[in-house]
From TrEMBL:
Residues 25-308 form the Aminotransferase class V domain. Belongs to the class-V pyridoxal-phosphate-dependent aminotransferase family. It comes from the Bacteria. One of its GO terms (biological process) is glycine biosynthetic process, by transamination of glyoxylate. GO terms for molecular function: alanine-glyoxylate transaminase activity; L-serine-pyruvate transaminase activity. InterPro entries: Aminotrans_V_dom, Aminotrans_V_PyrdxlP_BS, PyrdxlP-dep_Trfase, PyrdxlP-dep_Trfase_major, PyrdxlP-dep_Trfase_small, SP_NH2Trfase/AEP_transaminase. This is Aminotransferase, class V. Substrate binds at residue 330.
């Protein structure tokens, strides 16, 4: 089955073969080497010199960890869809005063509204969704950075779950403190791991926060990495990390990040052109995502039927998310998928449409 989902994505067999290697102990020198190698390559993916943390959880765990570990006063989530909404819930359910600045589905965060919000209350944590997977929209960091820059107390966390590895993040250029991503999206790994960068500023903030929990206490993970030669307090998904080491090495040193971003751009443009000719694309055309396309169901297709037709031919696609289910459907063009796979996919779609 070929996965055209916005995660999880298909994983190369060379990566899957890494799981056949003997399990290594998590307190060995080898384990430290695996983490060090992941760190060097994830720093390149995020565009940062800051420390890298690996979590044995999907990305949601690190989103929860970030807001809980680094909010002393009050958190603001700039939501442009379902995954931003989720981040506010994570804050509230951890007992953190968390407000939401919600853009309409298909739009980006308005820098003027962000400025108003930051003036109105004293926030020290701002969480922003980089690429909103429910609407296929990429927030514009150039527009948001100058506003956040005015508030030196703010720890800026960015959800790059469906963008890191598919498009540049440039963390240090923007002054982002925590970038978070999952294994199963643009990095083309199996689900089960997530990665975060953790800046010195985030470290200092977390030291002032009393109730950080335990498993997702990012300061605890950070200290352990620093003081115990790149290891973790509890047993991480070590075989998954071995596969990540292998795949990140491929991404950074074999394919190369620039080529990877270019390939994502080509797949996105090809699919979007096709979608425009056959349907319509959802959302503000100025800010379309390079890794996923949210398509308006202008032909009123019954999603379950179409999805079944695709499955019969060995493809998997996604319905619209939340409120957008039925009205839209989503196609992921991320990870190690190639342009020729997208061409094969649109050809199949045309056959299904003829029926
Ligand atoms: C998939 C996704 C998440 C959730 O990540 P999990 O790894 O499933 O926990 C969060 N944010 C965005 C933008 C996503 O695409």
């Amino acid at each position: 089955m070929k996965l055209f989902l916005p995660g999880p994505v298909s994983v190369r067999s060379e990566v899957l073969k890494q799981f056949e290697k003997p399990v290594i102990g998590h307190r060995t020198k080898e384990a430290s080497e695996v983490q060090k190698s992941i760190t060097i390559n994830m720093q390149k993916v995020f565009g940062t010199k800051e420390e890298i943390l690996v979590s044995t959880s999907s990305g949601t765990g690190l989103m929860e960890g970030a807001i809980r570990s680094c909010t002393k006063k009050r958190a603001l989530i700039c939501s442009i869809g379902s995954f931003g909404d989720l981040w506010q819930r994570l804050g509230l359910e951890n007992g953190i005063e968390t407000d939401i600045l919600r853009a309409e589905d298909g739009e980006v965060t308005d820098p003027n509204k962000l400025e108003e919000a930051l003036k109105a209350k004293e926030y020290d944590f701002v969480g922003i969704t980089h690429n909103e997977t429910s609407s296929g929209i990429l927030n514009n960091l150039d527009e948001l950075k100058p506003v956040i820059d005015k508030y030196s107390d703010i720890v800026w966390a960015l959800d790059t779950v469906s963008s890191a590895g598919g498009t540049p993040i440039d963390q240090d250029k923007y002054g982002i403190d925590i970038a978070i991503t999952s294994s199963q999206k643009c990095l083309s790994l199996v689900p089960g791991l997530s990665f975060a960068s953790f800046s010195q500023k985030a470290v200092e903030k977390a030291k002032t926060v009393e109730n950080r929990g335990h498993y997702f206490d990012l300061l605890l993970l950070y200290k352990y990495v620093k003081e115990h030669n790149y290891q973790y307090p509890s047993t991480p998904a070590i075989s998954n990390m071995v596969a990540a080491e292998y795949q990140l090495n491929y991404i950074v040193n074999e394919e190369g990040l620039e080529n990877r971003y270019k390939r994502h751009e080509e797949m996105s443009q090809y699919f979007k052109k096709w979608a425009n000719e056959n349907f319509e694309i959802f959302g503000n055309k100025k800010y379309l995502s390079p890794t996923i396309t949210c398509v308006k169901n202008t032909k009123n297709l019954e999603f379950d039927k179409v999805s079944q037709e695709f499955m019969n031919k060995g493809f998997l696609i996604s319905n619209g998310y939340g409120k957008l289910a039925g009205k839209t459907f989503r196609v992921g063009h991320m990870g190690d998928t190639k342009l020729e796979n997208i061409k094969e996919f649109t050809k199949t779609f045309e056959e299904i449409l003829k029926k």
